[in-house]
Design brief:
Blueprint lengths: L4 E4 L3 H6 L14 E5 H11 L9 H6 L4 E6 L9 E4 L2 H8 L3 H13 L15 H8 L91 H8 L2 H23 L6 H4 L15 E7 L8 E8 L6 E8 L3 H6 L10 E6 L8 E4 L4 E6 L6 E6 L4 E5 L22 H9 L19 E2 L3 E2 L12 E5 L6 H4 L5 E6 L3 E6 L28 E4 L1 E2 L4 E2 L2 E6 L6 E2 L4 E2 L25 E2 L6 E6 L3 E6 L13 E4 L5 E6 L6 E6 L2 E6 L8 E2 L7 E6 L6 E6 L3 E6 L9 E4 L5 E10 L2 E8 L4 E6 L11
Parallel strand pairs: 9-13
Antiparallel strand pairs: 1-4, 2-3, 3-4, 5-38, 6-7, 7-8, 8-9, 10-11, 11-12, 12-14, 15-16, 16-17, 17-18, 19-20, 21-25, 22-23, 22-24, 25-26, 26-27, 28-29, 29-30, 30-31, 32-33, 33-34, 34-35, 36-37, 37-38
Protein name: WDR63 protein
GO molecular function: dynein heavy chain binding; dynein light chain binding
Organism: Pachyramphus minor
């Protein structure tokens, strides 16, 4: 008649697990035990079908509350020694009976005074805590005493006599309440003398002595007859001897071809200009450092560029201190910090010379090689921005020549003139010490709709190889950008008539901001068969010589216009270019490195669907994003890739992989650049603030030297040659500090035939 009650048989082991032991934890008078539901489920998972709760596992799992009531059935009213209550209402009724029943019992007790009193279970109201607080508890560790006597004295007769306790050492024993510190004293030092005597053994031996004596031998030369000579010359033994000698001579001649036996090692030793003052021959000397609390505080430097013509001018851009994944998430959000490009001079390391205003954080930028007044940059939101700083040319004047001095012909004046050496970095700028640097606004920005959807990670100017040089000259008026959105965009810039005027066809920013700039060509990188996308991070293009034939004259890519209502990208089959024909012998190869560490070598040709063909070669060597992909300044078919914990050197035409691949380093590589002075040297920045200097002529398995530059992550590296005797290396870190280091002479002068 009680469907909420389920009898159970609990073994002794289960009673110990749940603390419900009979006559200890539960009795006939106090038969209730509260058990948590999770403890029963844990026991079912641990012991499975051997658990005593296995027959009622569904009841436990479906029980709505967190605690179940277990009752000890001492009289076996329901057939077992325990039963479980599977209802909250029945649980409350058993733990707290209705008040009416208590009142009726009280009335019956008052009406029947002769009824014996029945003891009720004691209900705790907290008084036992007060009793426990009054208890005297032992807080001090008890000291143990051990009293012993010799075994032979057990049972011996005892005779008691009077004795003074101070007469004997063992006559009085005091049992103190504390430990005697003088009871056990450790021996700290002990003098021990040992004498080691070797074992002596006598032995003897007998030797024979032969006395010296003079001796002489007489011999005569062996004379061969003519027949014996002919027989010896024709013997097989002589032929074998001559054959072996000829082989050795041939090997010696081959060795002479491999190694010059007449090489003057003493003369070649002078090429290694190692210092003799105790300093290492390979080092980077701190020259200057640049930072700005207003624009670079709590920001990381994303790109460094040296001015192509003005000596000692360096430009940097900064962005927020975010990881690569956070940059992609925030690329479409508004910026909370003013983004600028700062142009510094060696003559004034405190105040920038120019400040270029940016619509968003800049990820990369480049000066135009043909016109350094034009600067192009890629934003973190995918747009491309242009500046024209020709109106501020007085801030970036070229180096003034040192005035010629009249020197006497005497030896002292000549020696003094030779000692006095003028630094090639003595740049003179017309500036005011208290004037603020001018803020230059951008003159053009690309359309958001047709720009990249993710940050522009690399930007390059295309060289101007055109036949119609009268209209456009040799200026670099085309750009190429790449982004992790799996696209490469070619941009065309209108011709610039004069440096004092803004870009032709682009209105001044102060009047109207032009957001209609669209790319000329778009390349989408993906494999059609597998739908695999390649998000380019860095790009290397071959020497592009793209020309399109028209009626007798050649036009560049920028001369091709697209109808306004059609796609902004150039298509080979469109009506605007149906009379154009691509010239032959044109290289369309390019290299890209993506965010997955994959190097892709591909060949793009204009298609009607604006997609490239399937990549010809793909290499997965790097474990993280490719942060550096740079062509060697000495070998145009060799380039360097850096990403993750290793780097690789590639050569065009070698299809089986890189020609040199490094092992994984302990830290991450974050930046890298080739040396501009030595073909076999390049620099790599790490996440621990060190610069690894790799000299392939000395070592190829590890860097030949490393030097700590900063306590933060190295973000960008850019070399610059001031003169044949002076080379610099610009290094930026994650703290917004630009370090300019002077490269030592060992890394500035290449060896013979390097």
């Amino acid at each position: 008649g009680h469907p909420e009650i389920f009898p159970l048989v609990l073994t002794t082991k289960t009673q110990e697990i749940f603390n419900c032991r009979v006559d200890d934890d539960v009795t006939e008078e106090n038969s209730f035990k509260i058990i948590k539901k999770m403890d029963i489920i844990q026991d079912l998972e641990t012991r499975a079908n051997t658990s005593d709760f296995y027959p009622v596992r569904k009841v436990v799992q479906e029980y709505p509350g967190e605690e179940l009531l277990l009752v000890f059935d001492a009289k076996f009213q329901y057939g077992q020694n325990f039963y479980i209550v599977a209802s909250e209402e029945a649980k409350e009724n058993l733990l707290k009976p209705p008040e009416t029943a208590e009142k009726e019992e009280d009335i019956e007790e008052t009406l029947d005074p002769f009824k014996p009193l029945v003891p009720r279970p004691w209900v705790s109201l907290g008084s036992e805590k007060e009793v426990e607080e009054e208890y005297v508890k032992d807080n001090v560790t008890k000291i143990k005493f051990k009293i012993s006597r010799v075994r032979r004295k057990f049972g011996a007769p005892i005779a008691f006599t009077d004795k003074n306790a101070s007469d004997g050492t063992d006559g009085y024993v005091e049992c103190t309440s504390y430990e005697d510190k003088t009871f056990s004293i450790k021996m700290l030092e002990k003098d021990v003398g040992l004498q080691i005597v070797p074992k002596v053994r006598e032995t003897s031996t007998q030797t024979k002595w032969t006395y010296p004596k003079n001796a002489a031998t007489q011999y005569c030369p062996r004379q061969l007859s003519e027949e014996e000579k002919a027989e010896s010359l024709s013997s097989e033994k002589l032929k074998e001897f001559l054959t072996s000698v000829c082989l050795r001579v041939e090997i010696a001649l081959q060795q002479n071809e491999i190694m010059n036996a007449f090489f003057d090692d003493w003369k070649a030793l002078a090429e290694d200009k190692s210092s003799s003052d105790g300093k290492p021959d390979v080092y980077l000397k701190a020259h200057q450092s640049f930072t700005n609390q207003q624009y670079l505080k709590d920001r990381t430097i994303s790109c460094i560029c040296w001015h192509p013509t003005a000596s000692g001018i360096i430009a940097v851009s900064a962005r927020q201190q975010l990881s690569y994944e956070e940059q992609l998430k925030l690329s479409n959000k508004s910026r909370l910090h003013q983004s600028v490009i700062l142009l510094w001079s060696f003559s004034d390391p405190v105040r920038p010379q120019l400040i270029l205003e940016c619509p968003e954080d800049i990820y990369c930028f480049q000066f135009s090689p043909s016109d350094p007044n034009i600067i192009a940059a890629g934003c973190i939101n995918g747009q491309v921005v242009l500046w024209d700083v020709s109106q501020h040319g007085e801030k970036l004047q070229k180096e003034k020549p040192v005035a010629d001095e009249v020197v006497d012909s005497d030896s002292e004046a000549t020696a003094a003139a030779e000692v006095t050496k003028v630094s090639p970095l003595s740049i003179i700028f017309e500036k005011s010490q208290h004037a603020e640097p001018p803020l230059v606004k951008y003159c053009a920005v690309s359309s958001i709709e047709y720009s990249h959807k993710k940050p522009v990670t690399d930007i390059q100017w295309l060289p101007g190889h055109f036949e119609d040089n009268q209209n456009r000259g040799e200026n670099c008026l085309q750009l190429v950008t790449c982004s992790p959105d799996c696209s490469i965009l070619f941009w065309d810039i209108p011709a610039i008539e004069h440096h004092q005027k803004p870009l032709s066809g682009v209105p001044d920013t102060s009047k109207h901001l032009d957001l209609s700039w669209k790319p000329l060509i778009k390349i989408s990188l993906h494999e059609r068969d597998t739908n695999t996308e390649y998000g380019p991070i860095r790009i290397i293009l071959r020497e592009l010589h793209y020309r399109y034939k028209t009626s007798g004259k050649a036009k560049s890519l920028s001369a091709i216009k697209t109808p306004a209502k059609e796609s902004p990208y150039t298509e080979m089959s469109s009506s605007s270019s149906k009379n154009l024909e691509v010239l032959e012998n044109i290289s369309t190869n390019f290299f890209v490195g993506n965010e997955d560490g994959v190097i892709v070598f591909s060949d793009w040709k204009m298609k009607t669907d604006i997609h490239t063909a399937k990549p010809t070669q793909k290499y997965s060597l790097h474990t993280e994003t490719i942060n550096t992909l740079q062509r060697s300044p000495f070998f145009k078919d060799t380039f360097l890739s850096i990403g993750g914990q290793n780097f690789a050197i590639w050569k065009e035409g070698v299809a089986n992989g890189p020609i040199l691949q490094s092992s994984c380093s302990a830290g991450r590589y974050t930046a890298g650049q080739w040396s501009l002075a030595r073909p076999g040297v390049f620099f790599i920045g790490r996440d621990d603030g060190n610069i690894d200097i790799w000299d392939l002529l000395k070592k190829t398995h590890e860097p030949s030297h490393f030097q700590n530059i900063s306590k933060s992550v190295i973000t960008f590296i850019s070399p610059w040659t001031a003169s044949p005797e002076q080379n610099f290396l610009a290094v930026s870190d994650n703290l917004g500090v630009l370090h300019v280091l002077e490269i030592c002479q060992t890394l500035s002068h290449p060896a013979s035939n390097e």
